[in-house]
Amino acid sequence: xxxxxxxxxxxxxxxxxxxxLASLGMILAFxxxxxxxxxxxxxxxxELFAFFPLGVCAGMVLAWWREGWGGCVTVVSVMAFxxxxxxxxxxxxxxxxxxxxxxxxxxxxxxxLLRHHWNTKSNPTGETPCPFKP
Length: 134
Hints:
Blueprint: H1 6-34, H2 43-63, H3 67-89, H4 97-121
């Protein structure tokens, strides 16, 4: 990685990590505050629950070790949540909150892609590294 670009990549990585902690904390607070009971979920709600919050949270946790993969899991999970919600109810969820809680996934992806881009520019062998490696 080019030493001039390292601070930018580091800032984005830590911003994503801090934002993921905030999102995970808020999601956990909602479940604790609401007294969430898995037994009350209807069968069609399990599909939604698998993508948000489970897939989104799993992606953010994974992103601490594998930014690219974790970011992908988070972004794909929230997109799948919106698709399934629309398929089941005929409308999109109201408000931006699901996307906001999943936004650290996009930051993890950006960090991974920037690192990949900068590693490619500074790679003397010309070999293209995979953006999903640490």
